[in-house]
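Problem: given the chain below (547 residues), write out its structure.
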Amino acid sequence: MADKPQTRWCAIYTRKSSEEGLEQDFNSLDAQREAGEAYIKSQAHEGWRLYDGHYDDGGISGGTLDRPALQRLLTAIQAGKVQIVVVYKVDRLSRSLSDFAKLVDVFEKHGVSFVSVTQQFNTTTSMGRLMLNVLLSFAQFEREVTGERIRDKFLASRKKGMWMGGTPPLGYDIKDRKLLINAAEATLVREIFTSYAQRGCVRTLKGELDATGRRTKNFMSSTGRVSGGKFFSRGHLYHILKNRIYIGDSVHKGVPYPGEHQAIVDQALWERVQLRLSTNRNGTREGAAQPNGLLLKGILFDDAGNRMTPVFGKKGDRRYHYYVSQAVIQDRPDESGSVRRLPAHELDKVVSVGVLAKLSDHPATRRFAKRLLTSSQTEQLAALRSVIRRATITHETVRISFDLEQLFPNELTKNEEILPSPADVSELATMDIRYSARPTPRGLRIQTGSVQSPGEPSNALIKALARGHAWKQQLLAGEAQSFDDLAQKAGVTRRYVSRILRFSFLAPDLVEAIFNGHNDPSLTTQLFRKPVPHGWKTQRELIRLIT
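Solution.
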């Protein structure tokens, strides 16, 4: 008698990109599931059994893995509840080759087979995997061609001035897929343009609108989602003042075309407003507020995802620059991250020192870092901005994300000796730079007293070395009897004396390197909070030098 086949639990996954037809009693998802159930029954002699679970994603594109039913299926797979995944066609699972490769990796890791009802193959065989890649490539090609066709249709419609959907702008309503003027809102739009043309200040304009209780447009989408009805933010007002839709244009990717709708603002008023905007943007006020010499301008974000914008303050003849969260600037302080405001130049110095120290320490980027150390300040700033893609700040660290194509340019990687390995690339993709700050009435103040620029001797370290050796001599000569005696004479704590005395036991070459500024810039007095090894060899391993 033949052995009974081992039970293999099968899960059916179904998907449909659009919501059209899903309200029907028997829709596309039902048809896919019925075909899958029939296929599983045909394999009952192999021990296949239908797993009691529905995994149906309706109205969701196959270009993403962020699908509720798919994620539940992956959870069941990882829990060992499913051994076979059945779909109607390959592209129901994914239309992206890279995404599908990730799914196949998960399947193989948990011993799961993948079966298509209409394209019969099994991923447990090499031929099945080959056919899968071929079919998936065609599915991705079909998706890209469809996307190109939609974009071409969108452009053609825009050129004809047609409204292509979305939330209607203030001043217009939608009827029969066309923009029609809303008289009350159009009056408000003209007031916004007229007020700005007279005053030339968005902050003043926002204050006037807030004082009179004016709010943004209320709109309910076809799905019932309600938006708007809030106070105007400065960003929203700038968007209105620069939106060519109010002079009757339809814009696609920055190119204006005559629209089908009527204009709300006349050409003369529009040109006066644009002249005001241009003057303020290029004038001294805006120029001072947006300094070009800042390292993190445009790429710094708080940990809530808000951009940190450079602004300036003035006290007497001295000007101070700060990075301020857009949530604060737009009167949304509750939506800001853990850091709302920081001094710009101090943060830039911490980041530049930390980045150069890390790049100097890594073999794959050491040559690049050395070239920066000998460059002018302007060249160094430009080079650092070219390799830093994004910076995210918390109350303790700045996370730097690098543009790896810029960090490993072609001219550097031609030399096989410095060709970065995949591990190098992965390791240098991001880095965290710690900083210390203290609160002030106007925000955090970064402690930069111990921050050392590459190649520049640290005054804090040199002072600690001198003091440590002086206190050591006082103890040896009997001028001081104990740590407590030294602390009392110097007016400091015993713990501070203990930390500074550790500098007097450093190897001579390390002392010389610190005096010449050849130590790692990230080295600060904080390192000596813990005991320093007495062996000079161990000290050299702990304290890195720049040679």
